[in-house]
Amino acid sequence: MIAKGSEPWLFTAASITSLFAILSRAMDSLPFLNHIAHMGMALTFVMVIFFRDPERKVKVSDTHMISPADGTVIDIRGRKVCIFMFLQNVHVNRAPISGRIREIVYKKGGYLPAFCKDSERNERNEFIIHSKYGDVRVTQIAGTIARRIVTYSNVNDTVEQGQCNTMIRFGSRVDVTIPQDFDITVEKGERVLAGKTIIATIKNDRDF
Question: Known catalytic residues?
Answer without folding.
Answer: 172
